Amino acid sequence: MLNSTNPREALSWVIADIHRKGWATGTGGNFSLVLQSDPLVLLMAPSGVDKGLVKPEDLIEVNSESQVIAGAGKASAETFLHLAIASHMGAGAVLHTHSVFNTLLSEYYLDEGEIKLAGHEMLKGLAGNTSHEVEVSLPILPNSQDMQAMAVKVKNLPVKPNQAPGILLAGHGLYAWGSSLFEARRHLETLEFLLELTYRRLVLALKIS
Ligand SMILES: [Zn+2]
User: Fold this and answer.
1) Which residues surround ligand 1, an ion (CB under 5 A)?
2) 171, 107 in Cβ contact below 8 A?
3) What angle do CA 95, 97, 100 make, to 5 degrees?
4) Which of 8, 15, 22, 193 could serve as a FRET partner for 54 with CA atoms 20 to 30 Å apart?
5) pTM (2 d.p.)
């Protein structure tokens, strides 16, 4: 369960829950929890596994060089992005989803380099926001298969006020993070809610005009 004090139980429960929501099908997505910050050690699912079937004992431990130091299986190529976000953003957990809405909107808004989220009560689900009267920027980077180059881009992202605890990769998915697994999950659910809302508002406006 999420409130388990055992990090393996908590993370595997969160992964299965995200899979049930349809945000990590076809082995897509990956999820990490910081076990140790200096030097960095992540607990995460191995590459290529069905995210609906990950058991606590299936999780692997990965060091700051993306090498598996405990458990069976390969580390995902995307581990470099998890490591960059954990170290650069000070995250305690990083949750990466491939949902239909985040994929679609990351392509739709790519030329603008961000999606602006404003005016909704659910913005209060993001740490630091106490009102719906705020505009939050969710940055979008072009996708690449070179995850080490992507990690450098993430580290070099300009820090703006009111930046969401998340990054979209165009045509690929969303990375969301938080200081703890609980906060990272809240941020992920809030951003996925706001992205679906953004999509549905676009459709509604198309219907009205
Ligand atoms: Zn991915």
Assistant:
1) 173
2) yes
3) 155
4) 193
5) 0.94
